[in-house]
Request: fold
Amino acid sequence: MSDDPLFDTAVALVLAHEGGLHDDPRDPGGLTHWGFALRENPDLTAAALRAMTRAEAEARYRTRWWDRYPWRRLPRPVALKLFDLAVPIGPANAIRALQRACRAAGRAVAEDGKLGDATIGTAASLPPDLLLAALKSELAGHFRSIVATEPHKARFLAGWLARAYG
Reply:
């Protein structure tokens, strides 16, 4: 446990979804442990990635994902969903989904993939339940778009949608 209860909840959600070690040759992420793909983490070796403990993964999420973005300034349910989905689609794509969700909920904001004051203020001005519903829809749309352009990834769609809507 850290000194930040929101982070603790967010990282527990991510780790529940990401699970442990995966090395599916059909998965474009390749060797992945706790949501960290070897090909996207050049500072890790395959052996180091395989040996990564849950505590090490939590620390890595804290420094490389949580502390780099102002997730905690968002309404709690939105922060949790956005952080969770930033792992498989990247922070910029997740933030763009939030920006589209704000527009869908009636408040337009630039779709620039940056979690700045304008996006945070707009998100905070919306009813959290309304924004969360719109965000889930936008995230699901992102996954459907991936499958539309890369049909070989259709085998992952059900899991992605469950995560987006969950």
The mean pLDDT is 95. The first strand starts at residue 21 and ends at 22. Residues 14 and 98 are 18 Å apart (CA to CA). The beta strands are 21-22, 32-33, 36-37.
